[in-house]
Design goal:
It is a single chain. With 268 residues, this protein is of the alpha/beta class. Helices cover 32% and strands 11% of the residues. The protein contains nine helices and eight strands. A hairpin with a 2-residue loop joins strand 7 and strand 8. Helix 1 packs antiparallel against helix 4. The protein is globular and about 45 Å long. Pfam families: UDG. It is an enzyme of class 3 (hydrolase).
């Protein structure tokens, strides 16, 4: 299929340059989005007096194998969360005192996006200071980049027709930005389990090392967790870079696009 102007604009904002012509998808291509022939990694502009260096082309990814790790068993939903609808669960999270993180938070971050059913559940690393102050996940430049990434993949967390829901792996910011402790992850996984029951997503996109390690059950570097499909609660899990990291390392946007394409193929 051919990229329309909106998709080209979204990919351009993510830092990609599309080739002038895209090959038609074959009848055997099961992906909802045709493979882009080549995604070019962003390159720093050369000085005016120097010739523009050749841009390295990212290889077209092949179908990734399903991770061999045993699926994790989700934490049971406590009676205080079981049976709650979305509004009641959000209120319960705002007043939750299941772990010590409640002692220093300003706001719990429940998440935002699709109200009744989400195609994608995007699970982020713990809230940062800005998220804690606002009580919402991923604002600012990182949030805008996430929204462009979702739009390029045909999804959105915004508006009445939202198809994605974004939430952190723990709902309160750990002090001094440390990694969440096992008891804190356990307490919030019960909330995440109820969110899954309510939203019934088709896929989980884990953005960031802490989210990826918790959902895959593997203590590996983020780079080794990418490129394969994991399982959590019977759902496929695809791991990718968090938007804040991509703002600091734009060369890895090509890898993030590969991850989104893997997610699209997985739900095709």
């Amino acid at each position: 299929m051919t990229w329309d102007e909106r998709q080209r604009a979204m990919l351009a904002e993510m830092g990609f340059r599309l080739p002038p012509r895209i090959a038609e998808a074959t009848a055997d291509d099961a992906a909802p989005v045709a493979d882009v022939a080549v995604m070019e990694r962003p390159a720093a502009p050369a000085p005016a007096s120097a010739p523009v260096p050749a841009v390295a082309r990212a290889p077209t990814p092949v179908a990734a194998p399903v991770a061999a790790a045993a699926p994790r068993v989700a934490a049971p939903v406590p009676a205080s969360f079981a049976g709650l609808d979305g509004a009641a669960l959000r209120e319960a999270v705002a007043t939750c005192r299941a772990c010590g993180l409640c002692e220093q938070r300003r706001h719990a971050v429940y998440g935002s996006g699709a109200v009744q059913q989400a195609q994608w559940l995007v699970v982020m690393d713990p809230p940062d200071e800005a998220d804690d102050a606002a009580g919402d996940a991923l604002g600012g430049d990182a949030g805008r980049l996430l929204d462009r990434m979702l739009l390029a993949a045909g999804h959105s967390r915004l508006g009445d027709a939202a198809t994605a829901f974004v939430t952190p792996i723990v709902k309160c910011r750990p002090p001094r930005g440390r990694a969440p402790q096992p008891a804190e992850l356990d307490a919030c996984e019960a909330v995440l389990t109820r969110q899954v029951e309510l939203l019934r997503p088709r896929l989980v996109l884990a953005m960031g090392l802490q989210a990826a390690r918790r959902l895959t059950g593997l203590a590996e570097p983020l780079g080794r967790l990418r490129g394969r499909v994991h399982r959590w609660q019977g759902l496929p899990v695809v791991v990718t870079y968090p938007p804040a990291y991509l703002l600091r390392s734009p060369a890895d946007k090509a890898g993030a696009w590969d991850d989104l394409r893997l997610a699209l193929r997985t739900t095709a």
